[in-house]
Amino acid sequence: MTQRIFNFSAGPAVLPPEVLEEAREDILNLRGSGIGILEHSHRGKPFMEVRDETERLIRELGEIPEDYHVLFLQGGASMQFSMIPMNFLKAGATADYLVTGHWAKLAAKEAATLGTVHTACSSEDHNFNYIPKNCHISAHPAYAHYTSNNTIFGTQFKSLPNVPASVPLVCDASSDIFSRPIDVSKHALIYAGAQKNLGPAGVTVVIVRDELVKRGAPNLPTMLRYSTYAENQSLYNTGPTFAIYLVGRVCAWIMRNGGLEAMARKNEAKAAKLYNYLDSSKLFRGTAEKESRSLMNVTFVTGNPELDEKFIKEATRNGLDGLKGHRSVGGVRASIYNAFPSAGVDALVQLMRDFEAKHG
Ligand SMILES: Cc1ncc(COP(=O)(O)O)c(C=O)c1O
């Protein structure tokens, strides 16, 4: 295998090497069909089997109840920022948003172009470095939207937000889907761009309760209605076939590796190595409040932007790539999704120790 380095990118992100090797075979010849996965018709039997298998694996991993659809859409998670209010925020109604980071804020901003938005809570007062303990849900919102993991600020909900059971709960799980067990039945809709924990860029997985799909606005353009995808096995048009295939392979890999409980334990162990070191360091410090810390994106700084920059450069020279914090916050961010190896976390901690010894 060609030399690979440790990829801490926030997304598109590292994929399991064995999945990539499997894909390499299937790109040339999908399961003996003589045609590669990229070349198969989206309506042919070989691809339909792939599609059905991906859906079955997602259902099995997420323990998804029967009355939910698993849909494959394009347009990224950002498209969901628009589709959700278009479909479910009727005239005169209000949608509640828990504004805990950049993406949550963008989702709320998008909804506000289409209807009334109520900010149920916000952590912007401290540059989104925490998950608010309380939120104030409006009287009868059309839905409440939260972002389970804040990719840029390195914070994550440790439990479901406190939203009344009668309010349809909508979750942007783009950066932590299937990194831990998730109670689908408590949600009306969960969506995730695949490119962090599930596969490549190009497909957004939407898990949505049938009853909600049926309540969607009927007069929208065809491709913007969830019902179009639900009624056509997500193949009304040519779907992102390769991305759907690869999500299936990643889900099979998660399954082989013990499922979501096992992912959660591994992710906790990986993140603990970094946070334990950060808590003992005299040079580096984590930017997120302790009880809100993300297991997926670990954000930290030295307090001196030039030193941060120097550290990132040194890391790159040592085969640790993608550590630069998001342009809106700076500093360092280590994204350590499911497929990120524990050895890469060890290498990062070692490099931080050496750097501290030199510059601390
Ligand atoms: C939590 C979250 N939501 C939404 C997005 C936007 O996703 P996309 O680029 O697929 O539109 C991202 C991208 O990083 C994200 O981290």
Low-confidence stretches: none
**Gap between N and C termini, in Å?**
38 Å
The CATH superfamily label of the largest domain reads: Type I PLP-dependent aspartate aminotransferase-like (Major domain)
The gross shape turns out to be globular
Instruction: Kindly report the CATH topology of the largest domain.
Output: Aspartate Aminotransferase, domain 2
Strand/helix succession: EHHEHEHEEEEEEEHHHHEEHEEH
Structural class based on helices, strands and sheet pairing: alpha/beta
- Integer average pLDDT: 97
How many beta strands in the DSSP annotation? 14
Q: What hetero molecules are bound to the protein chains? A: pyridoxal-5'-phosphate
Structure explained in plain terms:
By secondary structure, the chain is an alpha/beta fold. It has 2 domains: 17-256, 3-Layer(aba) Sandwich (Aspartate Aminotransferase, domain 2); 258-359, Aspartate Aminotransferase, domain 1, CATH 3.90.1150.10. The chain has helices at residues 17-28, 45-62, 76-88, 102-112, 210-214, 226-231, 241-256, 259-280, 305-317, 342-359, and strands spanning 6-7, 68-73, 94-99, 116-122, 144-147, 149-150, 155-156, 169-172, 189-193, 204-209, 285-286, 297-301, 320-321, 332-335. The protein has a 7-stranded mixed sheet, with helices on both faces. Helix 4 links the parallel strand 3 (94-99) and strand 4. The two termini are 38 Å apart. The model has no long low-confidence stretch (mean pLDDT 97). Pyridoxal-5'-phosphate (PLP) is lined by residues 11, 76-78, 103, 147, 151, 172, 174-175, 193.
